[in-house]
Amino acid sequence: MITDVQQEILRLKKEKDFCILAHCYQTPDILEIADFTGDSFALSTKAVNVPQKNVLMCGVRFMAETVKIFSPEKRVYLSKSEAGCPMAEQLDVDMLAQLKALYPEHTVVAYVNTTAELKTLCDVCVTSSSAVQILRKLPEKKVLFIPDCNLGDFVQKQVPDKEIVTVHGGCPTHARLTVQDVEKAKKAHPDAEFLVHPECVPEVVALADYAGSTTGIMNYAAKSKARSFIIGTENSIVQHLQLAHPDKMFYPLSKDCVCHNMKLTTLVDVLNVLKGTEGEEILMDEEMRLKAKGCMDRMLELGQ
Ligand code: 13P
Ligand code: SF4
Question: How many domains, in total, are found in the chain?
């Protein structure tokens, strides 16, 4: 029974002094046993003030690294070693060094979906919920935005006074969503509002009634007077929204918008991490941590 496993997790969590963080893209059985759930930004600093000595991140590797960057004294675990974010691994330090040489006057803005190693070469970090605000506040005009050209394009449209250079890269999950999907969904649900994550291609984002981060989409749907919505982001969000608002209707833009990396973690994996038989402890060289922390600190400073 799922509930028996959940009960055992709750018991072990207390006994072994663990705080569990879960990104919204995790399955509901995992979200139910987490201490905190949310999008990348909400989870980034959650562990800093918790009393527990151990933190388990149910999500992907860059999220666990982010926790370690801000909480070096805690033992931080990733729920599943293989759970990486393909976008975070698209650029390595050599490639970024070459890009920086091409754009020596540009401030390097990194989406938080990057490795800790890559962050050591960046000036400011952003999340999808803070990118526009941070770019508006950033005093520098010339920006090299990595690695998501779709989010970079979205930000450029909202902050036209910046000169933003992007490189070809992004989220393979959101990139699956097409204009044809939008046309088909709007035909099937003509009264629905279309809400989209800016990791989608600009042609899809252009057709939306609202574009924003996971939290932004959830808040918009909660407040909107519309009765039905087409959701252009990872399909977990369709499920969470439908549960939260049974009086409204939520339709996925495509059945294919599923992040298989986020879905690698199962409830039993969580149990096994607490038992000490699975998961990976995130270990980070202190020099690298401090360098990576520089751009994360600037994110917090400008995101306030
Ligand atoms: P947010 O959590 O910032 O909305 O990003 C979505 C995502 O793709 C996480 O990897
Ligand atoms: Fe990475 Fe995209 Fe999956 Fe988020 S949804 S973890 S950006 S691959």
Answer: 3
